[in-house]
Amino acid sequence: MIKFLLMINKQGQTRLSKYYDHVDVGKRAALEANVVKCCLFRKKEECSFVEYKDYKLVYRQYAALFIVVGITDDENELSIYELVHNFIEVLDKYFNRVTQIMFNLDKVHIMLDEMILNGCIVETNKNRILAPLLALDKMAES
Amino acid sequence: MSDVVEKTLTALPSLLSLDSQPGAGKLSSTSKLGQFIRNITELTSKHEEEKLIKKELAVIKDQVSSPYTTMRQMRELMVRSMYCEMLGYEASFAYIHAIKLAQQGTVLEKRAGYLAVSLFLNENHELLLLLVNTVLKDLQSTNIIEVCMALTVVSQIFPKDMIPAVLPLVEEKLSHPKEIIRRKAVLALYKFYLIAPNQVQHIHGKFRKALCDKDPGVMTSSLHIYLQMIQESPDSYKDLVGSFVTILRQVVGGKLPLDFNYHSIPAPWLQMQLLRILSLLGREDQSTSETMYDVLNESLRRAEMNHNITYAILYECVKAIYTIHPKAELLEKAAKCIGNFVLSPKINLKYLGLKALTYVVQHDASLALQHQMTIIECLDHSDLLIKRETLELLFRITNAQNVTVIVERILSFLRLCNDDYTIIDLVGKVAELAEKYAPDNEWFIQTMTVVFSLGGDLMPPDIPSSFLRLLAEGSQSEVDDRQLKVYAVNSYLSVLNDDCSHLPQRFLQVISWVLGEYSYLREGLDQEEVILLLKKLLDQRGVSAETRSWVLSALTKLCRGSGRAELALAVAESLSSTLDTVLRQQGHELRHLIQDGSLHARVLPQPAPANSLEVDSSLSFLDGFVSDALAAGAAPYKPPHQRQEELGQQRAPTLEPYALSLPMSLSSCTVTDRQSPSVLSMSSGLSANSTEPSQRAGVATLMLEGVKRVWGKEGYLPQRDTSETPATVEEPSDVVQSSHQQVVIDISQPEPEPEPPQLDKKQQLASSLFVGLGSQNSACLLGKTEATVPRFRRKPHLNDASSSGTSERSSDSSHSSHSTADSFLYGGLLEEEPATPIQSSRHAPQPIAASGSCEARQHGLTVNGVDENRGGAVVCAKEEKRAHPTQLIESDMVRVRPNALAEGAVVPPQNCSRHLPSTSSCGSDSEVLKLPFELQNLPHSDIISLISDSHLCISCCRVFREDALLIVLFLSNSTEMVLCDVALELSCEELQMGSLRGNVMESMAGRTSSVCHYTVFMERPHTHVPFTGTVSYQTQPGHKHTLHFSGKLTTADFIRPLVLSTEEYGKLWLSFSHDVKQNLRLLTDAGDPLIATLNVLKDCLQLHIVDIIGSEGIVACRLLDGAPCLMHCRVHGASLAVWLRSSLSSFPDCLLYHCQRALQEH
């Protein structure tokens, strides 16, 4: 089960957060700060998975952007690690420039909603993930 | 007025910037949001961030409520509010606007509104109700995009109570022409299933339809529901196994459209999902598992590309293979896979490998042995996660022999660890291991001391509770208990003598209790010293009120005697002014008890014997009080169910100690007890019978019901575990002994190799960590008891299956159960001609047939049951144990194993009167029993006496024919008179008898012997098979005597060597599915240990040694001329790792058992 997904920049600021179990807004900041502490300072040769409380964190770095996924112990870490990459590939397919990602929070969320729902991986086919968003764009244009 | 202008002005730039957007609605850095994000990124301090966001929120708040704000602007504002919430600043004012946006907006704005709702609100938010109408409207929209949005939000967040309102609409969407709608409808139903399963019960049929949908996406979505439902009840969905297998086969075979591929692997996440489902369905279900072997094999084969995602699939595959009913071939591949993971230089893969190994060792501990050096390396890995996972793995393979090393490892990790969750987890594990496997008292107490100090107050309260209970209840051995208690007292005294200001409260509580209860046990200890130490504790700063209460209770117990009483009195006085009412109360009680010595002695008897305390569970002493109160108009007492429930949560942590140790009259005056009568009545109700000896004050207050007993009457549980396991271990003491020998050998082993010290050290560590794994007691010593369960639970399935398999061949008669058609025929022959059973040996391998059956023909009918007075030809049975030259390689068929039968010979008590114990005394009058001539050349056992009475003596000999076992029974008339109507019958339920007809003789002359024999077949292996028989005869007409006898046969009697070549062996090996791995003792007393051990096995069990290559040997045998069993042996340290395979499920286990016995007896 996926518990949350975070996009964090190198300064440790949250760029996107999505929680699949309800966490109070007030508690999120503390959790994210801890997650940042756990992941950002790890060395290259260290494992991409970290234990955090009763979760496992799976993190992957893309230039200045970190993606961290909190999962339960019964989840397959490596599959989540690759899911993150799939997500990045989807973003890459949609956005021309990386900087656009953070200015289009809502669209990233829309894509994410297609991929992960209630903590389950529901779609990994890139075309299908993008289809609803592209349809929205098309309708907005006309 | 100016206000409005200002608002319009501030709104203007955002309008402008929005209008300058490209049409697609992608926001750029020039937007307001972009500006805001950039501002935030540039900030350096938390304080500035707060200021900026507060300002931003104020602006947003203004604008959202402005009537001039367009939907497009609203969307942007919502995104900005999301951003603020994401950074931890609540924007609750925006919630209602988000709902409005979802309601009124079009397309992208609407989606943003829904998105904001799903991010802002939780499932129970009241505003969510306002969304229902919008959702209903959108679900009925003709615009697919809107339907899509509505379904998405429904499957994310929807009020449970409103499900009935949308359910028909969602159901309807299941047959929508567009796949995306069907897919989302299925996901919405999944959500409903999660939050309100009973609401979607009626549409299970539609789930099946979704599973069979022509679109792979819809099918994939339905798997989430199925995974969930199958987790809950796997048995209800067994009929779907075929579908899942087919789907997986198609996915693996690349039948999906190409855009489902991820890095050219077809739908990897779908594959993993299916593998998880299959493993749930195949668990402990052989027939279901069999249907998935092929596709699992295929998955393993296909996933050979070197990419992370294939490894992720492999991991699921391996897990599935080890979860379902085992298949040797797959297990082997899976084990190899794990090996690749663990040995990988990529750290992520190594981690996954360890995780897989941790999972797998529950089923097969020996796999840890294969990777022991890697595990050792990982133990010292710089990455904490790897270390942690390794410790988890070690925890699962802990047994009585390696517990000290493993616990030491975990503790040293704990000392450096500062993460609360890890500490709680590991401390619990150490406590569990310590209680289960502690080698001695000293170690146990020391380990628990570390556990208490490190675990601190984070520790779950059941750890100290169960520890105290363990001390209090003790084991069977008084001496041992006393020693444990004294050791605890000693070590806690020294703890208190040191600086104890840093110790956790829980530990101090444990210390006080132990000192209060047991310090008198230590001889030569001045109790005043203990009181002083406790007093010091009481005065120490930072000690909680709860702990002080424990300390006081201890003092109360210790204050006997003049000097001590004065000290305690001083304490009591000092408490008289404390603000804490509970402490003041206790101080008061203490003073009271000191002044009244006899009361003290009654309340707290010094040796506190377990059975001296009687608890009046009915509280009858209160009857008078109750009736008075009732008479005075008080409400009658009601059973306090509700209060119990409420208190149930509170009573989980430790209660005030000794509440019950005081008689009710006294304790009822303590504040807490008066407040919580339900606790009292309940805990006293625990001892329904007040005379129950174990009811004990101190114990009862600890509230340990439900805590697993780990320290039983027999001592530490490991010993109990061994004796309780249904495995073939019959003599646990021997097992323990032999494994102790292993320890010694293991530790001394690394010595001779002059290797670099580092490596040597590692090996030493390895041998101490992995000792006892894979040996016969390993299964039951695994950390998790449940881990062993499946292993044993599976056996019945195996038997069932194999019996159903063989029944095809042997469907009609009981004789036909012999495994080959030949023997079926043979069985039939026997039935017709019982008098010439030996003729049947023409079906046996040629050599025997040549010698045996000719003889048989010569003797014809005289052989069986006919008086064979061969008294003159005295040949000692011993001399006859000559090898049959043609049949035997290195004379391995000659065997004398009298003990097996002798020990099994049970003499029914009523016939015991003149039981003659040995053969010699039986065949008293210089008559030596002798096998019939045609059997003399066959390998056979000693002739042993079974039973005798004043007239008749019955002896038995087992003759090992290639295709059967002959039970030869000798009847000797030990009197001078003629015995008439002698009839002998033999029966055995588990075996197939070749000749069941009783051997009847009309008369038997004095001092003569008669021989009859039974041919017995074993179809399915049984370790021990009892047989019974009766002989009846008449000394004179009308005087009938009956003699009962019984004996025991073992599988070993039915094992025959199987001669084959190494190549044939290899081929055969692969074709067998039932296998067992185990470690055997290696005989090291003479020459090459492998050869020596194998020779012993060969001699005892008639195995055929096919080949010995280096440190490995292959051995083959079969059950008579039926099912083969192959054994692969490898010298592994000081033990022999054997791997047995057979086509019969229980054969490997049986053979293994006999190997163990043979080696033990040797």
From TrEMBL, chain A:
GO CC annotation terms, alphabetical: cytoplasm; endomembrane system
Alphabetical UniProt keywords: Membrane, Protein transport, Transport
Domain AP complex mu/sigma subunit intervals: 1-139
Gene Ontology biological-process annotations: intracellular protein transport
Highest rank taxon of the organism: Eukaryota
Membrane topology designation: Peripheral membrane protein
InterPro entries: AP_complex_ssu (IPR016635), AP_mu_sigma_su (IPR022775), Longin-like_dom_sf (IPR011012)
Main subcellular localisation: membrane
SUPFAM superfamilies xrefs: SNARE-like
Subcellular localization, as worded in the UniProt entry: Endomembrane system
Protein purpose: Component of the adaptor protein complex 4 (AP-4). Adaptor protein complexes are vesicle coat components involved both in vesicle formation and cargo selection. They control the vesicular transport of proteins in different trafficking pathways. AP-4 forms a non clathrin-associated coat on vesicles departing the trans-Golgi network (TGN) and may be involved in the targeting of proteins from the trans-Golgi network (TGN) to the endosomal-lysosomal system.
Subunit structure: Adaptor protein complex 4 (AP-4) is a heterotetramer composed of two large adaptins (epsilon-type subunit AP4E1 and beta-type subunit AP4B1), a medium adaptin (mu-type subunit AP4M1) and a small adaptin (sigma-type AP4S1).
Similarity remark: Belongs to the adaptor complexes small subunit family.
Record's protein name: AP complex subunit sigma
